[in-house]
Amino acid sequence: RAKAASSVAPVEEELAVSTPDLMHLRRVVEEKDGGPAWTHMMDRTLPTFRYQAWKREPQNGPPQYRSSTIFEDASPDVVRDFFWDDDFRISNTWDDMLLEHETLEECAKTGTMVVRWVRKFPFFCSDREYVIGRRIWASGKTYYCVTKSVPRPSVPRSSKPRRVDLYYSSWCIRPVESRNGDGAMTACEVLLFHHEDMGIPWSIAKLGVQQGMWGCVKRIEPGLRAYQTARAAGVPISKCAAMAHANTKFVADELTASENNTEAGSTSNNAQAEKPKHWTGNLPKVFVIGSVVALACTFDKGLLTKALVFGTARRFAGPGRR
Questions:
Q1: Is 102 among the domain residues?
Q2: Where in the cell is the protein located (predicted)?
Q3: Nearest to 218 by CA among 39, 46, 41, 42
Q4: pLDDT tens-digit profile of 7-57?
């Protein structure tokens, strides 16, 4: 449960999520962040939404994932609130891994929050804890939503749940033209950028995510439609969703000019990562599946997602085990 938090607005530089985070997200959205090229992974279309996904491998750090989800008949405002609404994540169970959430800090002026999540893992793993800073910027009807892990020594660590130290999951939510051909901007695109330190060999992580991704993604759309129905019926929004309304307005052209003036940046992510050898190739299936389970239960850093665990096990078990 969220606890009372201070609403006193600190200066911009003291906020958990600040303007440089917005500038970074905009560069990633525009594919101008200097990182490796994106490799296409998936393209799925259903009657009311389309999903595409890409990945890339920086020289230093875990694999990064980019996705585009286009929801028909959805407004950016409601989609923004939907992803920010931790209460609805739990009550609707569209995000069935979220067990607990609480607000640790909030700034009523900018909408910046620090929240603590506890996420459920499969039966053979301990749960995971996140301490996340998050904030939304708005340019017209386009929203830039940053969520990332932030250090908070004041929040004590425990062995269970285990803390995730590297986490980045941010969105650009914007109106787009409907695919029904009438030219109306009644669809909404969500560009998601995600990476975290899973604490396991990246070759295993990539296999698992690719195998389990679609099963997790297709739960989101029914949750969004239920959220739309509740809002249309006048159900009051939660405190978390209300904080999404306290976003920071900015003018895109002015920020672009500011970025151009400070654009010297690091090029440390430009090099393509050396691809790790697929050491799993000649190992017995039972060993690989057992290793995934063991890694999930023993590594202290990072989040081994449900997609990774079950996707990797399914990949190596073969059709007879599905």
A1: yes
A2: Nucleus
A3: 46
A4: 454 678 889 999 999 999 999 999 999 999 999 999 999 999 999 999 999
How many Cα neighbours within 13 Å face the side chain of 243? 27
pLDDT one-digit tens code per residue, 47-59:
999 999 999 998 8
Sign of the four-CA dihedral 302, 307, 309, 312: negative
- The beta strands (E) that lie in the chain are given as 39-46, 49-56, 64-71, 98-106, 113-119, 128-139, 142-149, 162-163, 167-176, 187-196, 248-249
- Answer whether 0.90 is exceeded by the pTM: no
- The answer to whether 267 touches 275, Cβ cutoff 8 Å, is no
* Identity of the residue numbered 207: L
For the domain that residue 115 is a member of, what is the CATH number?
Answer: 3.30.530.20
Following DSSP, what letter does each residue of 254-282 receive, concatenated? HHHHHHHHTTT---TT-SPPPPPP-TTTT
Out of 60-64, 145-149, 190-194, 266-270, least confident range: 266-270
Pairing of strands 128-139, 248-249: parallel
Does residue 313 lie within any of the structural domains? no
Structural domain boundaries, residue 107: 34-250
Looking at the domain assignment, is residue 145 inside a domain?
yes
> Is residue 54 situated within a structural domain?
yes
Cβ 69 vs Cβ 223: under 8 Å = no
Q: Work out the average pLDDT over 119-144.
A: 88
pLDDT recorded at residue 212: 76
pLDDT band of residue 173 (cuts 50, 70, 90) is very high
The two tokens of residue 85 are 């609404």
As a whole number of angstroms, the distance between CA 180 and CA 73 comes to 10
Amino acid 155: pLDDT: 95
What total of structural domains would you count in the chain? Answer: 1
Q: How many whole angstroms separate alpha carbon 116 and alpha carbon 126? A: 16
Type of residue at 243: M
The residue length of the chain stands at 322
Collapsing DSSP to helix, strand or coil, 223 comes out as helix
